[in-house]
Amino acid sequence: MQDKLGVMLCGHGSRDKEAVREFAVLSEHLKKRLPQYPVEYGYLEFATPIIRTGLDSLKAQGVTRVLAVPGMLFAAGHAKNDIPSVLNTYAAANNLRIDYGKELGIDPKMIRAAGDRIQEALDKAGGNVSKHETLLVVVGRGASDPDANSNVSKVARILWEGFGFGWAETAYSGVTFPLVEPGLEHAARLGYKRIIVFPYFLFTGILVDRIYDATDDVAARHPDIEFIKAPYLNDHPAVIDTFIERIEQILTGDISMNCQMCKYRTQVLGFEADVGAVQESHHHHVEGIGTSEDCPHCHGGPCTNACKTSGPFELASVPQASHGHHHHGHSHDHGHSHDHDHDHGHTHAPYPHADHPLGPKTLKK
């Protein structure tokens, strides 16, 4: 007997009504793109429906196999522990097969969405400030998982190099460091005329508001610098495309998260005590708490607990290597043909920002 498939979108939840609305809108996008499946959504805490309610709905619709995806950018505690704990508990109690997909992660489509949001901010700001005189600050959620935090830094680096900004910094809204305000104060001392603050968040909420508020505070102390607030990702079409791909990957079996640097599997510097920690959710006692301010766990506050030919800054002129391997690992885009003891028969495209004032002479055209 063939399984009837259903899709479950699993979010964290927020006390911010607009954030909850935006997540619900995301589920509507998935319903339109996946008319062949029932699609439901739910949250770990702070909002309804909770994840179990969504699963109940799928089961009532006759679904026998659930394709569940975390509505999260990176795999930290919520995606690695809390959501799987809820799903595994439900699956065991209801004799229902639930297959869990991977987070959005570092993906060319997500970088494209981020690039578009930053470009929107640049277009709106106008002016004649060059990108070399512009500093980008990418602000991530922040987690107790250094692997997830490092992904924010990687996003910042890809955007920095892709746009050719003068400099880039990474900051976080909580849990880890540097936090937004000290991060922006540090950035303000680096001598750039313009600073773009980009919250690498899926949806709005208390934390995004705090990022923008901190930007205003620092801007008031540095009137000689232009501060620009870029919009968060929201339901950018490329974000929707990535969710669709993550759901399809469950069916193809390509669902592995990055376990090489996972603090629960290997001894990551400074987090050695987390190896082998029990997979359990710390949200079970606040499921469905909605927007109540008397959460016993968080005490009224927010929860504390790319290949370059296909990315957003693709080099259309880059030829595929004619000798049997693509995008080989020589990290030297010289911008001229290279002849080191063997003839490849092709040339590298010039580095797109060879005129960067802080770049090495070997990049100059």
Task: Give keywords.
4-stranded parallel beta sheet, 8 strands
Gist of the model:
It contains eight helices and eight strands, in the order βαβαβαβαβαβαβαβα. With 365 residues, it is an alpha/beta fold.
Main sheet makeup: 4 strands, parallel
How many beta-strand segments? 8
Counting helices, strands and paired strands, the structural category is alpha/beta
What order do the strands of the largest sheet run in, or round the barrel if closed? 2-1-3-4
Strand content: 5-15%
Helix content: 25-40%
Overall pLDDT: 82
What's the Cα radius of gyration? 22 Å
Tell the overall outline. Answer: elongated
Descriptive notes:
- The protein is α/β, with parallel strands linked by helices and 365 residues long.
- Helix content is 33%, strand content 12%.
- It has eight helices and eight strands.
